[in-house]
Amino acid sequence: MSRKKAFVTGASRGIGKAIAIKLAQSGYDVAITARTVEEGETREHSSTVKWSDTSPLPGSLNSTADLMRAAGAEVLVLPADLLDRPSLTAAAEETLRQWGRIDLVVHNARFIGPGHMDQILDTPVEVLEKHVQGNALGPLVLNRVFLPAMVAQGGGTVIYLTSTAGYEPPAAKAGEGGWGLSYAMSKSAGHSIAGIIAVELGDRGIRAFNVQPGPIRTERIVQDMGAFNFDGDNDFWQPPEVIGEVVHWLATSPEADKFSGQCIQGQELCEELNLLPSWKSKATA
Fold first, then answer.
1. What domain range includes position 95?
2. Is residue 166 situated within a structural domain?
3. Contact, 228 vs 179, CB < 8 A?
4. pLDDT at residue 231 in the model
5. What are phi and psi of 206, to 5 degrees?
6. What are phi and psi of 63, to 5 degrees?
7. Residue 243 pLDDT
8. Is residue 152 part of a domain?
9. Which residue has the higher pLDDT, 177 or 16?
10. Between 284 and 52, whose confidence is greater?
11. How far does Cα 10 stand from its chain's mean position?
12. CATH no. for residue 59?
């Protein structure tokens, strides 16, 4: 049987990297996209307008691709920026040009830049616009290319990595253990996409899910977020591989069909189905 084809955004590190590697290990060829191509690249990744941080973050597309190819997958490395719509369109079109089909699209990437941890009165409107473009409109640009291809081939799956910030208020102010409006409103907008896809295209073979990952210990959480009371350095934070297993199950299991259009609590599902036997959540460890 030919290998299925997937497209994963934000695959240079963190959850996207874990998802891409799991898919590669499980029989998928995968197109991966992000901004960072080589280790050590620098760009702005501060979560606040109050200061700048351009120190390199661990991870890159090429590092992820090496691990995927070692698992036997064909990998397309397609650099793109969520704020650069032509780059997103080009990445999606190149995937279809080379493979002729797409079975799974995972919208994992989000806008990385100031505003994420700024309070309302400190957040310029243009910063809000960047977050909405990255976290809601960017996925739609990709969907405009991929969904018609999925319909034409008779089916496919779309997964959006959502957040509780999109549908619940924070327990504290931004910068004090909570999150800012820019993140909340942009993830809320993105959160609405899967349900609409499921309703409008479900009868044409398209499944769509939101996956809420919960607290995941990524490279950026460890490096950046201690200043905002999110340090990633205790049992509250879980490994990215948990969500890799959940995305793979949703993409491949017929049992997942009944959840199309819904929001999946990633850590709870992983534990309930014992998708990663070596892992136990904080609640049961």
1. 4-272
2. yes
3. no
4. 66
5. -100, 125
6. -65, -40
7. 98
8. yes
9. 16
10. 52
11. 6
12. 3.40.50.720
Question: Which residues lie below 8 Å from residue 253, measured CB to CB, with a gap of 6+?
Answer: none
**What token pair was written down for 78?**
């397609």
Domains held by the chain: number? 1
Check if the beta carbon of residue 149 is closer than 8 Å to that of residue 127: no
Closest listed residue to residue 186, CA positions, set 206, 161, 208, 213: 161
pTM above 0.90, yes or no: yes
Inside any domain, residue 176: yes
Cα dist from 206 to 77, 91, 145, 193, 195, whole Å: 25, 21, 14, 13, 11
CA distance 136 to 134: 6
d(CA 53, CA 222): 14
Has residue 198 got a pLDDT over 80? yes
pLDDT category of residue 216 using cuts at 50, 70 and 90: very high
3-class DSSP state for residue 281?
coil
**277 falls within a domain:** no
Q: Is it the case that residue 285 has pLDDT exceeding 50? A: no
- Contact predicate 132/166, CB 8 Å: no
